[in-house]
Amino acid sequence: MRTIIVSFSIASMVAYVLWKLHARRERNISTAYSNQRLVRAFDIDNAFTSKSDEYRKLFTLEARVKLSALEEADWKRIASHANAILQYGLTEQQCCLDSLVRSMSLKITLHTLFKLDPMDMDDKFIGDITSSINDLWVESKTSVEPSATTTKKLRQALARFFPNAESSGKGNTLNFILPAYEALWRVVLSASSRSAAPLPLHKERLSRVPDGGKTATDIVIADIEKCHRIHSLWGINADKFDPSRWKNLKAEAEGAFMPFGNAKFICPAKRVYGPMLIAVLVAALAKQITAEKWTLELYPAGSETGHELRGNEALIADRKTYEKMMIRKKKTLLIKS
């Protein structure tokens, strides 16, 4: 009888291990399947698109190495670069806030991931990259084939910074650029578009990302957006934008804060890089674009977007919604003595 029990236990353990491996494999395939539109649009092959467990592990490890190498001196330099980029971009009387944030976010992304000098980047090619990524991303959500013209423009612009890199597959620099840059500029833009006291804006913005946590598959594994709006954890104003909630937050809410995923799907940027980079860039924007010197204008005037930004309602998820946000320098009154 003892031998039978032992044999049964070993068989059970083997079956359990095989089931776990199968379940993990299914999750990975599900994630890769839902992101095939990005493969079609950008010809990438990374942890979000590959069905290979081995390659996913290697890619994630490389990403962690890139993101964990930053020390205090590096963060000070990043903050200095961000402020310098904004100062240079704010020399005119008016500026498109959307373009400014995208440009800054991409330059800092290229600096942190590939050690490129952000102050030595040609704005024309940076603009070509940001606009092309946006256009191809929008097209990827439709049945329309990626624009050959836009794809060519993107590849030519990337070649200016990475002349020896491949433009497709595992050697495509977009494998790292897209995950780091794409969410970054949207979070920074929406956080910097709202006015609030010196509170944890980056955390509040991460918890309010529109449609930022729904698994794009037939079966919803986790709805992060709803997790961030549970009244019993986040308060009666859980659906509102309220950075002050972080001053006296329940311990349970901290555990339910998952903008960078959880369990088997934790983003390599979760621990330090992601939250720190968002905070640094939002702080730079708050320092350079003050209410005393600048005014925010929306077109058309009186649009719903304007009401949302001035209030505390959830923001619209459409990436094109905020393209018409302009900031304009206030006129300085000269008082004659």
From TrEMBL:
Q: Which domain of life is it from?
A: Eukaryota
Q: Name one GO molecular function term.
A: oxidoreductase activity, acting on paired donors, with incorporation or reduction of molecular oxygen
What InterPro entries does the database record attribute to this sequence? Cyt_P450_sf
- Annotated membrane-spanning segments are none
Report what the protein is called.
Cytochrome P450
**What organism does the UniProt record list as the source?**
Cladonia borealis
